[in-house]
């Protein structure tokens, strides 16, 4: 018997970074994101022998251990181990051996929330196996707690909730890790146009988001006026993006994205760099009206809003830089799990 799960990755459209403490605790944050048809996958296969096999197929990594109620967190497949250790601690796992296999449709550090989405997917597979009564908020909060507190990995709160809920959501973040997810009822024709015009471009570089996020947190704690004001503006950007999408004011999307791109660069060093700036400027010159670096910044995916038929000119202009365009569709469903015989 195999217990499976998949959870969607996300594109952050506005407000990025305002979900990170201490900003969200002190001022309240707001983010607008949308899940896409790239996924984190997890499967748990029960074994007869008393062995735990962990496999990350996309990373070509495998770890094997004798069955134990706690696995060593030592820098190797720690996300998988962290989820297992917490589930074992809180609920107990009746089996004595299993193989946990994962695969993510985008590289780690690419800015689409891969790590947090993977944690949600793994939790989904264990939830399916143990029939745990966890709702969407419960699952997202559980994933956040494992990643941020158990494993001490720096980051925000949006990714776990996006992966769990799915769809286009306006999220609010408050003190005490309080999160409110507001699903947006956007007309399908508006989503179709947004999907057509929004290019997803992988720069063929990944980055370690933790260092950027830690600097962002340090700037807020130190009262850095420029950084805090930029985050205030990004929170307003999320509100503007929500209104534009609900009203179908698609021509303003590029301008709103560009506003956010300029503000986000003020939050911390290394969010952008000379290569990212060159890519951005080339896209704008070719007809894009705005864009952003996905996730914490520093590399990974970029998105560009290309109205009319400008997407083709933008794609051609970026060919010289290498990188890859990824096709996708917006998705409405969050984490889903099932049992295979």
Give the class-level CATH name of the largest domain.
Answer: Alpha Beta
CATH fold-type name of the largest domain: Ribosomal Protein S5, domain 2
Count of helical regions = 11
Note the beta-strand portion. 15-25%
Question: Separation of termini?
Answer: 5 Å
Radius of gyration: 20 Å
Q: Please tell me the total number of domains.
A: 2
Characterise the protein shown here.
With 341 residues, the chain is of the alpha+beta class. It folds into two domains: 2-185, Ribosomal Protein S5, domain 2 (2-Layer Sandwich), CATH 3.30.230; 188-325, GHMP kinase, C-terminal domain (Alpha-Beta Plaits, 2-Layer Sandwich), CATH 3.30.70.890. It is 40% helix and 25% strand. It contains eleven helices and twelve strands. The strands form two sheets. Strands 1, 2, 3, 4, 5, 6, 7 and 12 form an eight-stranded mixed β-sheet that branches. Strands 9-10-8-11 form a four-stranded antiparallel β-sheet. A hairpin with a 7-residue loop joins strand 9 (290-293) and strand 10. Helix 2 packs parallel to helix 3 and helix 8 (225-247) packs antiparallel against helix 9 (253-264). The longest helix is centred in the last third of the chain and has 23 residues, at 225-247. The radius of gyration is 20 Å and the shape is globular.
Fill in the keyword field for this structure.
single chain, 341 residues, alpha+beta, Ribosomal Protein S5, domain 2, Alpha-Beta Plaits, 2 domains, eight-stranded mixed beta sheet, four-stranded antiparallel beta sheet
């Amino acid at each position: 018997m195999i217990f499976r799960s998949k959870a969607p990755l996300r594109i952050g459209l506005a407000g990025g970074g305002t979900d990170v403490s201490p900003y969200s605790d002190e001022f309240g944050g707001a983010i607008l994101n949308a899940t896409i048809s790239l996924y984190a996958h997890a499967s748990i296969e029960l074994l007869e022998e008393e062995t735990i096999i962990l496999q990350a197929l996309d990373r070509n990594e495998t770890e094997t251990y004798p069955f134990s109620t706690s696995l060593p967190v030592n820098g190797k497949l720690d996300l998988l181990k962290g989820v297992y250790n917490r589930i074992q601690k809180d609920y107990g796992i009746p089996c004595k051996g299993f193989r946990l296999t994962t695969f993510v449709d985008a590289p780690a550090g690419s800015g689409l929330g891969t790590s947090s989405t993977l944690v949600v997917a793994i939790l989904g597979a264990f939830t399916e196996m143990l029939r745990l009564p966890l709702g969407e908020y419960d699952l997202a909060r559980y994933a956040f707690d494992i990643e941020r507190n158990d494993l001490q990995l720096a980051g925000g709160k949006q990714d776990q909730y996006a992966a769990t809920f799915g769809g286009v959501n306006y999220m609010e973040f408050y003190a005490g890790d309080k999160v409110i997810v507001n699903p947006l009822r956007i007309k399908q024709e508006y989503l179709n146009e947004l999907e057509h015009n929004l290019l997803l471009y992988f720069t063929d570089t990944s980055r370690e988001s933790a260092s950027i996020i830690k600097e962002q947190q340090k700037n807020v704690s130190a009262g850095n006026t420029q950084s805090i004001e930029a985050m205030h503006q990004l929170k307003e950007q999320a509100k503007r993006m929500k209104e534009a999408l609900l009203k179908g004011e698609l021509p303003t999307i590029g301008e709103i994205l560009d506003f956010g791109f300029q503000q986000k660069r003020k939050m911390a060093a290394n969010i952008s760099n000379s290569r990212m700036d060159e890519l951005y400027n080339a896209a704008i010159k070719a007809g894009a009206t705005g864009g952003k670096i996905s996730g914490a910044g520093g590399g990974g995916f970029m998105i560009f809003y290309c109205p009319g038929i400008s997407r083709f000119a933008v794609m051609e202009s970026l060919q010289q830089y290498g990188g890859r365009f990824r096709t996708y569709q917006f998705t409405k469903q969050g984490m889903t799990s099932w049992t295979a015989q």
